[in-house]
Amino acid sequence: MSVTTQSGSEIESKMTKTTKAPHATAESMATKQRDISVSEFFAKNRHLLGFDNPRKALLTTVKEAVDNSLDACEEAGILPDITVVIEDLQPDRAAAAKSSRYRVTVVDNGPGIVRKQVENVFGRLLFGSKFHRLKMSRGQQGIGISAAGMYGLITTGKPMMIQTRPHAHKQAHHIELAMNTKTNRAEVTVDEETDDFPLQRLRNLTTGTRELATSNEFLSHTQYPTGTSVSIEMEGRYQKGRGSVDEFLELTAIANPHARITLVPPTRESAAEEDDVPLLTKKAKKKDDEEAPKADPNSLPDPNLTKEAPAGPTTTTEVGGVIIFPRGVAELPPETKEIQPHPKGIELGTLLQMLKDFQEASGDSTLYKFLQEQFCRVSPDTASDFCKAIGATSRTKVSDIEPQQAEKLYKEFQEAKLAPPPTDCLAPIGVRQLLAGLLKGVRAEFYAASSREAAVYRGRPFQIEAAIAFGGQLRADDQARVIRFANRVPLLFQQSACSSFKSVTETNWRNYDLQHPRASLPVGPLVIMIHMASVWVPFTSESKEAIADYDEIRKEMKLALMECGRKLGTYLRKRAKMKREGERRDVFQKYIGEIAKAVSAINSVDTKKLYEALLDQARKKTAIADLQLDEDGKAVKEEDPADQEGVIVVASESTMPVPVDSDAPPVGKLSKAEAAALKVAAMAKDDEPTLLDVKPAKRQAAEKTRATKNTATKGGDKPAAKQASAKQTTAKAPPSRSSPAKTATEKPKMRLVNGKLVPVQDGPKLF
Q1: What φ, ψ does residue 233 adopt, rounded to 5°?
Q2: How many CB atoms sit inside 10 A of residue 501's CB?
């Protein structure tokens, strides 16, 4: 038997040949490189667009479609009427299923979309008209609705169904398309014209839709003469509570009171994974109920509304399972205007590109013209100064500008003192709408709102609005609830990463009598609402769920919150004082009866009258305990005609105080300054309780009155010197103890009680 042996080097060489792979070369790597379309990138990273779980994917789809509908209607000058229908295509699924297949349909009465643009709008990412313009709008990037269609195609394989009718007297276009993620282009499978707009199938979907369709309140042809309908089949999860479609539409209705939104929820709801407490409530509308008058969200709270009364009617109704968010106002928000970039908001690379684009578009145009046409807040004189600063003239061509001159021009932009950009490009919600929105959905006892002046970040104008609701039915042992908006769109996710949330946690709520743990939300029955309106909201991601933390933005948010906090602190301190005064009154009432009995035993006065007089004084001293405060923390006035605005009540002679100074103005004609002084003097009383208002008459005023009456009695034809000497004699002469009874011409001794002069002999001799 022979044995074959191999050397170690031979074994090593064989192992190397079998395990060692050839190295890649530049040529082999070049063959693997290819272009990546934006749709292919987001298909793999759909969590960046808000499609990271089934429940959030359903909400994002509704959000993007509703935002586009609101923008289209407002630009066309049409009051929005939007219907959202969510159909559950797997109602018999297992109870433990985490997701289901839904068909989401959103119909609006907007201007519609022309046929040749349908593929671009719904079948391409990063296609739109809002990215480059500086004008407030909800959509910005041209990703949302096409990304929703891409998600539906990935999860179900079904194309989008679009119906659009740009003209009321023409047929609607029915298109079915699917996005090719490799090329970022749409592939149309169905293209036809139809008269079925809005879809007749949706009217017969449920009992509630049939009932509303009978009365022409659901998808009627008169309400939707033109518009667009989008249907997407997708994997999702419908669940009520926080972060749900219901909450999003409710908050959207608050921020957009001019819109009417109808929601047809699916027939089956997924089981809740957590105990979500809804912020807002709705009421069922029965068939036999009378139509209650709707609250006008454009009006301020009723000043006669007490804290025990309901804060306001809830206008959200439900008919046969269909939820209706009715239109609150019949006026569109103020129309916004597009503005040019501000010189302080651009960077050097952007300036160089603008110079190049302007040269290609206008040929041999001048730098002087470029500065005035491409920037805002640059007047002819300012443009001339910029040209001189970089060594150019008003006739210098844009093509003649050297890179060094462009860099110097950029530095001049940063150092120049220019007016801030115009604010007619913004359409804030407004204080009235903020208060009306909170009144409609939040059951509280105090409401306050603040709207800041427009500010600037990176040369772009923005405006911050804030509102708070306190007390009422809100839970006192929970942290405050923060509601965030950006360009009238609710932000429901990524709260801790948002600048709005950080501004709330950094505001010192202890200054306003609230519990505030460090680096956390305040604790108490509080709801905080923050809205940012801007031509370009700096979102942290493409899903548009949180506002980036710019110093200028956070500062404005904190100032708006502090303004609302000061109003809340004033209200809480006033309410605490009311409680203290009520406790003082309780102490008074314990001893008033004993005091009345003791004084009656000494002076033999009527015990009942004395008790009522003392009780009346106690009520006056603790009158603040009887105040009722409205939503703004102001005292609700009693139903006294004198307290009404524009009414003057002249007191009768029996109740009118005797004037002690002939130069004093008559009663009922006090100036505003004198009335304010009396009010301030009344508020400056000592907090220590006194039972009776006993004020000694002023000596000089009494002497002057006595001298005047003596002069009138003894004769007014005396010389001025004699009258003066008579006044001095009368003032200095002490009363005689042995003088007989007073005659009719003598003035009885008087004292001031409760603003009235009464004889000294009247009433109990307590002092």
Answers
A1: -95, 135
A2: 22
